[in-house]
Each structure stands twice: as C-alpha cells, then as structure tokens.
C-alpha cells in the first residue's frame, strides 16, 4: 500500500506503458539513463550454473545529482532460472567516504506501484546524515512497475471513463456494476499484460532483491520498507532469514491475512480509513474556526457534499469533471498526512462546497494515477488468495460499505482502484500465480527485525503491525501514537530509533512508544510543515507522491 498522497511522476514511462502487451526482447537491454527511459522489457540471459540464476552484472552510469543508474537482468520466472529475463531499473547514491561505509541501504517505497528509483531520488536529501554517511543508498523499480516493464491492463481512456462514472454516494445498483467492472479489468489484464502478470508477485520480488544484494557485494541485507514495502521486506525475511542484517518494516502488514485471508485483511483497512476520517470530522466540529467546514455539522455537510457533487459534477480545466467520488479518492490518500494537514483538509472541503477547482479534492485522477493503480491491482490479485464464492464476495463487500459509511461505499462499489477495494476484481482473477508467496512468515533464525506501527494509521492499521511483530520469531514493535500513515520522517523519536538500529543495530527497548506527532496548526499553513508533503497536496502537483517527510 502507498502509500502516500498522490503518484510519482515517472519521466520516460508513458510511451512504454501504452504498448498493448509486453514484448519479449532478444538482445541485451539498453542501460537506464538520466531521464529514466524505459528499458526493453526483457533480454536474453547468460548461462548460469547448477540451475541457479546468474547474479546480475551492474554497469553504473551517472544519472545526475550524484546518482548512478544501471539495469539488472533477473529471471522472468524463477522456475526457469536460466530462461527469459526481465530488466529492472536500479539507482544508488554512494556514501561520501567509501572507506567508512557500513554497506548498502535498500529503500523500498509503498504501493504496490510506486517507483523505487524515484523514491530514492526524491527522498535522499531528507535522510538523516548518519544514514547517508553510513550507507550507499539504493533503490529500484520492482518488476511490473515504473521503468521495469510496467504492467498495464486498462489504458488511460478506459480508466477515465470508469472513474468519471463512479459516485461518491453510490446507488442500489452499484454492486453489480462493480463486479462487472472487475471482470472487465481482469479480461484486459489477460489481453494486455498476460505475459507478465503471473510473475509480478512478491515472492519473485524477494528473489530479485536477493540477487541485487549479491550484485552489490552485500553479505546480508540492510533494508527500510514503508507500507507495501514492509510486506516485501517481510517476505524477504521469511524466504532468506539468515541473510538479514537489519530490516525496518514501517506501516506493516499482517502478512497471513494479506496473502491467505484477504477479506480479513480488507475490513480493518475500511474501518481504519473511515476511523481516521471520523476523527478528522470530530476535530472539525470541535474546532470550527480553524476547520471552517460544516457550519457546526461537518458529518452532515460531508454527506451532502458527496451527493451534491454526484448530482452536479464540477467541470475541470482539462475538460474533465469532479464529483463526490473525486473527493473520496483524494481524501483516501491525503488523510495519510495526519493531524498537521487537518486545517488544509477543512479548507479544501469548504472550497469544494463552493465548487472552487483550486481545491485539491476536486482534481480527478490523471494518467500518473493510472500508472500506479494498474500494478497496484495486478500485484495484489497475484499475491492474495480470495475465495471464489460470488455469495461470499457480495456479503463481504456490502458489509464493508455498511460498516464504513463515510468513504467505504464509494470505494467498495467503485471501479478497480486501490488496496482494500480489490475484492471485486481479485475474486474473479484467473490464471497461475507462481510468484505468490503464501508463508510461513516467521523468518526463523533472522537477526532482530524492527516493526513500526502508527496507532491512527488509515492505510495500514496498527493491529497489523502488532500481529506481524508477534508472528516474526525475532520481531520488535515500536509504536507511534499518532494519526497518519507510517512513522519514519514524521516522528523525530521514531526516526532516531530507526537510524540507530540501521547504523549500529541498536534495537529499541520492548514497549517503546513515540508520541511526538505534529499537532494541527491554528490556521491553514501556506507552506508545507516539516515532515509532510503538504505543498504537493495543496497544489495538486502530483497524482501520487511517496515521500518519507523531512524533520529538518
């Protein structure tokens, strides 16, 4: 899950993602260079020995700003380790004093669907100096994402039509429409991404990481993963426990529920998202002068806003339109920033009431969002094992919508989109899933693994972090008492603990709790507060942006 406010801009991927289907190349891929040009999807692989995939050879070249970029060829299907390959785009920035560095730090963003290349490039300057001094900082676009053969099922016009027709307050016939759209998305995946889709699951991503670890000359892995990146790290630790040096899993998943009991995984996310929205509206009611939305009844005003915009959409500058669904979509991601942006959310809702298109809540998803949403759905349909019962699907989806009345109905009955809303698509998914990992998730014999959970997290519920820390044989939980998604970069306490663990392997004491969330300002800020991406949210610059935040 990503997951944070909107979507990374990935220069150079747009032309590539419009290809109708994955193409199999027969020559070595061209090195990924400055602009992030998409490399050919696949390349011939050199022979390896003993049935093992060969370790990629990384040929680094300058790609501006002190970063180096390269391509890594890894097996498309690990059942055929010496067969066809897929090319992964990788990036690093080396520690300034190579003689004193401790190794390489892998950074893994949320999603599935966010670019690891952009994650490293966009966040490096805000990392604590101790991390930049101690490690070469490394990231990559996982298979099916960004510059690494992006998987595309629905094209931009199809997605735009489906989202334009969606409602913030769906009617009684909405469930049937959602099921039909899920089936249409599945068929589009078979038609347009069938050569790649079976192989984008997290089990294969973990194997890719282990080859990259070897390619970088690391005996063991040092890793920070946020949101969905935490699940990737969990699977890596489960598959290669003896190769773990230090893993931080921030905004963690309950992996057993995610992979094997997805309905049990989805419902807490519906409840967590609606809970965060509910707490914001409670604050709005108690702080009317600062919030400025709702005239004393923000809940009633929010329900009326959704219905009014559904009935009379607002024309947007690019010829599109914004309705109640648009508002729900934007809130789902923006609420992740925590209390510090609550005044800005109030202002944006008030502007939406006034049909003022400068409100970022009235910006419909754009093609950059679709770049993210396509792999988000495909990866999770491959990773998760939904029961095939139509009756169970209907019961679960309709119950989720009922239990989460603020944002749940729009998500449950909307087109194929994001995370907890995948059931109507993934329960109809067909085809093999060789890259899916089903457990166990104990990581028996690993070094200590640090799990971070935020008590008011709307995207990865806190109880998931608790469950993971207990499931791991050697897990340690750090709690951040706060609203918003993830902890590193939002809490000085958590950031210091993570840094000490990654650099010096100092594991926080059991029961460690951080309570230093930035509180709501007394008025809508004009610039982004430390530790947030508020500037991008207020201005609507990006459609998804995965940022760690800065505490400087």
Automatic annotation (TrEMBL):
Keyword Hydrolase: yes
Sequence ranges assigned to domain Peptidase S33 tripeptidyl aminopeptidase-like C-terminal in this UniProt record: 424-514
Pfam families in the cross-refs: Abhydrolase_1, Abhydrolase_4
Keywords assigned by UniProt, alphabetized: Aminopeptidase, Hydrolase, Protease, Signal
UniProt EC number: 3.4.14.-
AB hydrolase-1 domain: residues covered: 104-256
Signal peptide: 1-43
Transmembrane segments: none
Region (Disordered): 512-538
GO MF: aminopeptidase activity
Record has Cytoplasm as a keyword: no
Family: Belongs to the peptidase S33 family.
PANTHER family: 2-SUCCINYL-6-HYDROXY-2,4-CYCLOHEXADIENE-1-CARBOXYLATE SYNTHASE (PTHR43248), TRIPEPTIDYL AMINOPEPTIDASE (PTHR43248:SF29)
Name by which UniProt lists this protein: Tripeptidyl aminopeptidase
Designated gene of the protein: tap_3
């Amino acid at each position: 899950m990503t997951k944070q406010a909107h979507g990374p801009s990935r220069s150079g991927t747009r032309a590539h993602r419009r290809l109708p289907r994955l193409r199999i190349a027969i020559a070595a891929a061209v090195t990924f260079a400055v602009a992030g040009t998409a490399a050919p999807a696949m390349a011939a692989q050199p022979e390896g020995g003993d049935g093992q995939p060969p370790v990629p050879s990384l040929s680094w070249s300058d790609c501006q700003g002190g970063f180096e970029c390269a391509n890594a060829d890894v097996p498309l299907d690990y059942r055929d380790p010496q067969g066809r390959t897929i090319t992964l785009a990788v990036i690093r920035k080396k520690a300034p004093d190579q003689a004193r560095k401790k190794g390489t730090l892998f950074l893994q963003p949320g999603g599935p669907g966010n670019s690891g290349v952009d994650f490293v490039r966009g966040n490096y300057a805000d990392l604590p100096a101790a991390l930049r001094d101690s490690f070469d900082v490394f990231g990559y676009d996982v298979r099916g994402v960004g510059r690494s053969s992006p998987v595309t099922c629905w094209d931009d016009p199809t997605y735009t039509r489906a989202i334009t027709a969606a409602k913030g307050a769906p009617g009684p016939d909405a469930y049937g429409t959602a099921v039909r759209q899920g089936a249409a998305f599945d068929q589009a995946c078979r038609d347009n991404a069938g050569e790649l889709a079976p192989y984008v699951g997290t089990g294969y991503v973990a194997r890719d990481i282990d080859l990259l670890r070897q390619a970088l000359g690391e005996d063991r892995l040092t890793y920070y993963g946020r949101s969905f990146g935490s699940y990737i790290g969990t699977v890596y630790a489960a598959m290669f426990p003896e190769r773990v040096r230090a893993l931080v899993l921030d905004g963690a998943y309950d992996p057993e529920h995610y992979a094997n009991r997805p309905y049990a995984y989805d419902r807490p996310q519906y409840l967590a998202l609606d809970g965060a929205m509910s707490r914001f509206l409670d604050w709005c009611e108690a702080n009317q002068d600062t919030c400025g939305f709702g005239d004393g009844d923000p809940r009633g005003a929010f329900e009326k806003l959704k219905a009014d915009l559904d009935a009379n959409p607002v024309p947007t500058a690019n010829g599109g339109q914004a309705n109640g669904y648009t508002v729900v979509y934007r809130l789902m991601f923006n609420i992740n920033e925590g209390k510090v942006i609550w005044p800005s959310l109030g202002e944006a809702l008030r502007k939406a009431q006034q049909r003022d298109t400068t409100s970022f809540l009235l910006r419909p998803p754009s093609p950059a969002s679709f770049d993210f949403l396509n792999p988000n759905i495909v990866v999770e349909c491959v990773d998760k094992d939904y029961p095939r019962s139509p009756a169970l699907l209907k019961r679960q989806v309709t119950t989720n919508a009922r239990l989460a009345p603020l944002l749940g109905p729009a998500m449950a009955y909307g087109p194929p989109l994001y995370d907890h809303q995948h059931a109507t698509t993934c329960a109809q998914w067909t085809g093999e899933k060789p890259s899916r990992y089903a457990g166990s998730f104990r990581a028996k014999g690993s070094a200590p693994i640090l799990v971070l959970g935020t008590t008011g997290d709307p995207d990865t519920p806190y109880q998931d972090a608790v469950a993971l820390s207990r499931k791991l044989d050697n897990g340690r939980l750090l709690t951040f008492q706060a609203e918003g998604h993830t902890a590193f970069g939002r809490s000085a306490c958590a950031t210091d603990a993570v840094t000490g663990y990654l650099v010096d392997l100092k594991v926080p004491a059991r029961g460690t709790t951080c309570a230093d969330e930035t509180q709501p300002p007394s008025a809508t800020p004009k610039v982004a507060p430390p530790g947030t991406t508020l500037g991008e949210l207020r201005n609507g610059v990006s459609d998804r942006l995965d940022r760690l935040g800065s505490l400087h």
